[in-house]
Amino acid sequence: MVALTLLARASISLSLHMSKPPGMGVLLLFFITLGFSFRFVTPSADTHRYNAGDHVPLFVNKVGPLNNPSETYHYYDFPFCHPDQLIRKKASLGEVLNGDCLANALYELKFLEDKIGETLCQKKLKGDEVAKFRNAVTNDFYFQMYYDDLPLWGFIGKVEESWSVKENGLKYYLFKHVQFDALYNGNQIIEIRAFSDPNHVVDITEDVEISVKFTYSIFWKETSTQFKSRMDKYSRASLLPIHQQIRWFSFINSVVIIVLLMGLLTMIFMRHLRNDLKKFSGGDEEEDKEVGWKYIHGDVFRYPPHMALFCAVLGTGTQLLFQAVILFVLSFLGVLYPYNRGALGTSLVVTYALTSVVAGYTASSFYSQFVETGWKVSVLLSGPLYLGPLFVMVSILDAVAVSYGATAALPIGTIAVILLIYTFVNIPLLGLGGLIGYRLRSEFQPPSATKRCPREIPPLAWYRKTPCQMFLGGLLPFGAIVLELHHLYASLWGYKIWTLPGILFIIFIILVLLTAMLSIGLTYIQLAVEDHEWWWSIVAAWGLNCHFYVLPLHLLLLQITNEWFYAVFLLLWLQCLHLLCSIPHAWYNRFSCILDFYSLDIPCC
Questions:
Q1: How confident is the model over 445-485, as pLDDT tens digits?
Q2: d(Cα 352, Cα 515) in Å, to the nearest integer?
Q3: At what angle do helices 343-354 and 412-421 cross, to 10 degrees?
Q4: N or C: which end of the chain has fewer CB within 10 A?
Q5: How far is CA 342 from CA 35, 99, 261, 422, 504, in A?
């Protein structure tokens, strides 16, 4: 029962021992209220009502290869039919970050008016333009358009193998006719699909000048689907029986891992910790009898070297944790949904800027509990700790995107806006949070006095060192979330559509529980071998494992032509995952567990 009691206490002792001021709760309430305020900016059905014959503009967006969604180009970078006056739709910050660049088109799709074989334009393609189209067909290029804020896609061409007597090889064809099938309910558009007709093609195998007549058709059909449910079609792929089985398997696998880990931790505490408690409570105070975790009571609460950097890492990880919670709230409120152009990118920038106050507060308040002066350094380090590497990686990606002419290239104006947000929002809120944390600081009272000179750590076996903890600390959480993580990555950099934030939230909670329980078990193992340098080990054990497992696996699962380009994207994500998974909940649970160990009413020699 002592072990079970200690295990229960370890999960809640953060609020009992660290004596955090109520500022964090106020901040969380503020951000949740902010999330509810975003609810009122979602699209309204009143702005999507039309009369018969009304002109509903169709916007062209981008083209790119099917096997590499990170490589996209502007629609008019290819010799399609384009209007005399090209008008680009004003893009939001999130749309620019997502590479969206909507422009007007020659298509005349009027509400409830069918058209058959309507001529778009008569275009004469030169040899180099034919070669450009052929290269696009070879790489399975698709195009993306938007009609009444509904996305639609289609392929540019097709490849066929010729078995004729005179010719033997591959033949390349360009689609010259697009058929639109639109569904409506009353005076609202519910759905639209684009179909590239394989019966209307032109041969582009040779680099010769050809004349192409581009045409299109549109057919309207009535449906009973309501406007509020028109985005549900994008979740059908996630609700297929095979995908439901995979998700159920992932969920059951995660639960089984939690149960097994809980049983293992209970066995460790009941067999080993109980023996230690009996030994220490037996009244024998000889020095050779005092071994294990109780022997280092005078060193375990010695604050680590580079304390300012450690607190900055803790603050940045807590900020990312808050940001993840806010994004979940926005998803549940319906603000973030599939193909809400730029909503996710804008939310990432805005929420990160606003949660800077959390990073400053956490870094300064924790630093001030151990050291009286120098809290400003930890706050200053919290700012560039994540954004510094992020800026370097984004600069590399932007330079590559500019050289390729891809839509991922950020305009100068967007870079200026982001810098202004960082200067006038991030930095002031970071300083404000640091000041609040310093003003509301509380002095940390360790259960035992810290010795002047640190005790030497005895030699450890290889399986008790930090690399082994990194492997074990990463293997179990990764095995529990690997399937859902693959679906998430495929939705970020692939063509799977993620529309089930509830499942992702459950997996997130499972990851937090697994990390918390493993942190308790590994903490006892580390202290049992008289290793009191546990502070920085949490960063390595719970963060670097993300790089070891995630990067090679998903480079294998998603076979993308420009793997190095995708790898840099993964490094951005892994840097965030490193701080998010390794710092806040894992470290807080480890710290609270150690406080429980050394708060037991047992004399320390």
A1: 777 777 777 777 778 777 777 777 767 766 777 777 777 77
A2: 24
A3: 30
A4: N
A5: 17, 9, 40, 19, 21
